[in-house]
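G., before I forget:
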Amino acid sequence: MPEFSLIIVLVIALALIFDFTNGFHDTANAMATPIATGAMKPKVAVGVAAVLNLVGAFLSTEVARTVSGGIIQEGDGGVLITPEIIFAGLIGAIVWNLVTWLLGLPSSSSHALFGGLIGATVIGVGSQAVDYNVVAAKVILPALIAPLIAGVVALVATRLAYVITRRDIGKPDGRGGFRYAQIFSSSLVALAHGTNDAQKTMGVITLTLIAGGFQAVGSGPTFWVIAACALAIAVGTYTGGWRIIRTMGTGLTEIKPAQGFAAESSTAATILASSHFGLALSTTQVASGSVIGSGLGRRGSTIRWGMAGRIGLGWVMTLPASAIMGAFAAGLALLGPIGILLDMVIGTIVIMALFRWSRRNRVTHNTLLNDIDDAGRVVHIKKTPRRPTRRDRRKVSL
Amino acid sequence: MIGWSAFLIVSAASLFSAALIVSLYALGLRLLTTAGRIPMVEPHEFTGAITVLTPKKAAKQLKRARKAVAANPLTPGLKLVALYAGYTCFVLCSIAVLYGVYLIVPALHL
């Protein structure tokens, strides 16, 4: 039985922190559209998503067994990843996740994780340890295709929803009824997310435990790992990345209930189909593609392509940026215990600085509410404003 | 190396299932509306994405909706048929969604 070394404890802690950031980064995928159309109250929506992520994490551990499979050549023929490299990769992934959250960009958490691990491996082991063909086939190509598929599907679904419910102008079309459906479709997305994303962290922790000799090679995640990861992602989801929810819900296009339902159904269908046929697509990219597609599908809606471009740029940057940060962290970690300590100190300072910065303009669930609505209410309570008297005028001038 | 056929299958499958679910639900709504049971679902909270109606405008819409319901050309029997057809659509739609849940949970199909 090997010693329980500090580095393994650190890796597990960091993996759970990454899981937490993954949770609040991806709340928007499922819940941005129902919040935007008012199908659910913001707090209720993130609560539902958190519970479904928790449940989803327990439902399936298939993905955990095959995480990072192939990208970094481990095992008999290739190089064994050390806990130090995983540690450095996780730091890169967490920092990039926080940066994109601060910018309100929905970016793929799994790309950040892969990027961080790739960067750390290149520095720690050498660039021959990374299989670039697999990176292209499993990460880059799906990233280009995922939003395209989801966008086309959402466009068709939105068109159908509008054509079927179309009535003469002035007659009620009952499209508000799509709000009920949105509750279910977004819940399906949240459940699918839980079965996919908590798995990645479980896989990383299990990989570390196997590398440290605590578990037999090829064994699945143990119960406490599953429970810890499920809890971390659920808490992260409940925290709600309101910045990203704002971007997805109101930043790309104006979403109406029919569009929201079409977009969520497309997201759920695409994710389920892809995981069923063994093709890993990023939930974030699918969801963003769906929102844009539903915007294209409704007549008279506009899409803010500037915002879409920023999100696309964020996606392109995710892999290299987190790779560079992972590589930097790995460079330090290779110095030995001092390097790891240095990594932790720098990482903590960076994370603290990012949180400090986020305090400057806080975005909470209240930020999403319509200020026109409040103004409207105020105006309608006071129907006919009194004409200012002489005393009022004097008060203003004082 | 790159599984193009996998991409094609995934696109076709997701297009089919999303279109099916959305069409069924939309058809259900359409039939309910035809039957005179117009679903009026108010948003829980007004986010920046929602165009807010003034109470005056909202009342006007409601009045117009009532008028449209009153002027329904269908006989009571046909209305009932439309209503139950609408409910059938919702049931079919929820079956499709439950199939999605079935696909998510590996314990159910292993």
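The longest helix of chain B spans residues 4-34. Chain B has a mean pLDDT of 81.

More on Monday.
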